Amino acid sequence: xxxxxxxxxxxxxxxxxxxxxxxxxxxxxxxxxxxxxxxxxxxxxxxxxxxxxxxxxxxxxxxxxxxxxxxxxxxxxxxxxxxxxxxxxxxxxxxxxxxxxxxxxxxxxxxxxxxxxxxxxxxxxxxxxxxxxxxxxxxxxxxxxxxxxxxxxxxxxxxxxxxxxxxxxxxxxxxxxxxxxxxxxxxxxxxxxxxxxxxxxxxxxxxxxxxxxxxxxxxxxxxxxxxxxxxxxxxxxxxxxxxxxxxxxxxxxxxxxxxxxxxxxxxxxxxxxxxxxxxxxxxxxxxxxxxxxxxxxxxxxxxxxxxxxxxxxxxxxxxxxxxxxxxxxxxxxxxxxxxxxxxxxxxx
Length: 348
Known about the structure:
Elements lengths: L1 E2 L3 H5 L5 E3 L18 E3 L13 E4 L4 E4 L1 H6 L2 E9 L22 E9 L1 H8 L7 E12 L2 E12 H4 L5 E3 L1 E2 L2 E2 L9 E3 L12 E7 L6 H4 L3 E2 L9 E2 L6 E6 L5 E2 L5 E8 L5 E8 L5 E2 L1 E2 L9 E7 L4 E11 L22 E7 L1
Parallel strand pairs: 4-14, 18-25
Antiparallel strand pairs: 1-9, 2-3, 4-5, 6-7, 7-11, 8-9, 8-14, 10-13, 11-12, 15-16, 17-19, 19-23, 20-21, 20-24, 22-23, 24-25
């Protein structure tokens, strides 16, 4: 969606905000809201919960829902991992343009609100509807394109009607802070956080492919030499990180060093996480409890470490048999990196 403004406005740079989740927080059973990673293209708009409303344009009418109306719909609560599409971009060589994320552009929260589907039914679903557009209140200029662009994404109709896709108004039991997308944001479980549009302002149907900048031009998996914009990214692939020991740190050299981490994504849930010390064999880890289809799974293993430098690697497998690849998937924009995670450190 493009908003026409003056040439001065078109030339103004956008202020982007990004802050990772500390790896230590990923070991916690519940990640504090203030430690959830942040990725904003534009400054957070001022959204007063008392005056907020969401416009839904349906088959034959438009419906405006305020927070009271949203709370009157059937509610659901889900533990959901959100991950930025550019997570671990810094592992590509050379590093592509974009936020140079290392680790930490991933977090989990307990989100609550009605399903998007229940709200769409109030407005009426057009017979020819193909996609549902989620439009945020944030907007600004983007590099390489004229005009002011509002952050908006669309979901295929079938995904939009999934009962687990939420219009969330609570995060970890409290009202969603403005800096986390409140008062209401979309939460699209199992898909990249790009689709969990913050500061929701408007939802509408389209009978053709949505062509907003952040859908048709940005956040596309584009292979080197490929013509056209590339393909859209949707489901989170299987992934895992090492959270202990820390990269570049020092740990005691002994025969009972605990290696810990977290895993998420994939098809059907996490089946196994393997670890390898230096160039030794892959070994199984002990998985923590499964707390829902979209939540993290903790893992840990005990290793023996001699004095000196070491590398530890982890590899997760999902229940469909997909495993983390050896290296980042080839693409020009540094997206969707779910390669084996490796850390180097010193045992002393």
